Amino acid sequence: MSDIRHSLLRRDALSAAKEVLYHLDIYFSSQLQSAPLPIVDKGPVELLEEFVFQVPKERGAQPKRLNSLQELQLLEIMCNYFQEQTKDSVRQIIFSSLFSPQGNKADDSRMNLLGKLVSMAVAVCRIPVLECAASWLQRTPVVYCVRLARALVDDYCCLVPGSVQTLKQIFSASPRFCCQFITSVTALYDLSSDDLIPPLDLLEMIVNWIFEDPRLILITFLNTPIAANLPIGFLELTPLTGLIRWCVKAPLAYKRKKKPSLSNGHVTTKVTQDSGEMDRDSHLLYSKLHLSVLQVLMMLQVHLTEKNLYGRLGLILFDHMVPLVEEINRLADELNPLNASQEIELSLDRLAQALQVAMASGALLCTRDDLRTLCSRLPHNNLLQLVISGPVQQSPHTALPPGFYPHIHTPPLGYGAVPAHPAAHPALPTHPGHTFISGMTFPFRPIR
N or C: which terminus of the chain carries fewer CB neighbours within 10 A? Predict the structure, then answer.
């Protein structure tokens, strides 16, 4: 690598960047012939940092700066390289060498260039770059993933009105990238403050993507070899947890956003017409999203069983439900004086439905005692109470430990009182199966 470095030092910045990609392409192509997963050692990474990210190797030396035109030309060189390289394994390892965080001073330059490269790939539809970015999002800590998501949202949803139409087009070009992008965006916009409510254009685009093809958000899960224990600090296999958070918290978060402000000691309750319009639009979008999420959850039992993960892998972690419930409880307490009873009811209804379907499909693994403890401090909600009480039958599914909330395989019972001796009434008709959750039974229980 030292000989390559000396030759690169005699070149201008753009020629050196193009040349280092050429040399590393040859180097890794050779390595891949002898090892399916070659280890990226320090030498190639240092060359990339010095000649692509312009971080000097010598201590104390001033970093070089590319002007805007040179940076655009560099991005074009990189886009063309990934487009023209036909071997996916070589593309992936070069992309990883370029953009995997190293925990050093080059990471800021690395992330800035990555955001611009992926943004350009979206604009000119460079599918190989988007596919490499999807793999990068899957294996990179979430703190870096949300930085990339922020860069794309700024470029296509904030800076230039109408540019979101360009971002929408990648739905058919790279569904895998779309899945990872949605997961990153839900990690970024957690509705914990008004600034972290997703922009309306972004929300509308994601809702339409998922509504058109609900399986989109399962692409990473369905195409990834999965261990029972997932790594901590990385993106989840699906954006389901983040999307549930959006649907459940949205009514309360938007109500908080309209909270009256104090002006000269007096409460100001004026809300602009534009704000009201946005709330009506977002309400419909979140309702549409909630329906799509429930539909995806209902698909999961089959996929978990096919992968032999039913009862072993919770795609929605109980530990992630705990802060969500705490946030709902805090928001409900904060907004109660503002007569937010309808928003609180809607939020809790959506929470109950999501918990019910997630547990029934095996996506959420927890005991009913855990659920009662978790929801004990929430305001009263009839549907949530029904879900907490749970079905009385125990699932015959052997993969689930005793006491876990199972999927119910028995036919649905009729509404109203259950006969004491069902066998004595063979002619009694049963209520037809409910289309909302097929096979899910909830015998009548009084609400206490």
Answer: C
